[in-house]
Amino acid sequence: MSDVNILIAFYSRTGSTEALAKAIAEGAREAGAEVRLRRARDLVGAEIMKKAPGWLENSARMDRDYEAPTEADAEWADGLIFGTPTRFGLVSSELKAYIDTLGGLWFQGKLNGKAGSAFTSTSTTHGGNEITIQSLYTPMAHLGMIIVPTGYADPVMFRAGTPYGASSVSGQTAVPPTADEIEVAKFQGKRVAQVARALKTLKA
Description:
Number of strands: 6
Largest sheet: 6 strands, parallel
Number of helices: 8
Helix content: 40-55%
CATH superfamily: Flavodoxin domain
Distance between the termini: 18 Å
Structural class: alpha/beta
Order of helices and strands: EHEHHHEHHEHEEH
Shape: globular
């Protein structure tokens, strides 16, 4: 059994954010963590999703592949990593809806001292990658988490991503993350697992 637990709670519509989430999970597992990958559920019905090509089909597939994140997942985790596509420089409403369910844990102080990190993808260059990640720092601070950015703590950070967290630019055709963007995501998973382990040991 692993000595550190990592929750990756993300929302993805086209699969770009999902690809980063999977790479982060790989990095965390390589660092010895047990990982739960969870996808936040869509908030609109099928008729709306049909208006965007592929949305309904991708949603159905990802809902089969991933459970929805729960309050219990957050309590279980020693580190929480939130992932979202950009929505005008902010977190998607789908992921925000999940974060809003954590009020009970906040009230009980059960997220205090846990590691927190974030990642994102966008369809346009300079489309809000950095500020979207930073927008997720705000609820993390309210929840009492210790924010863990990627920084420039690995050589790959000089080739892709942001010093705040992994990111990718998918364009209008959902181009997958590049090899360097995937490496940044793996590094983020490893870094958060290492910090979460240290914080857990310190608390113990």
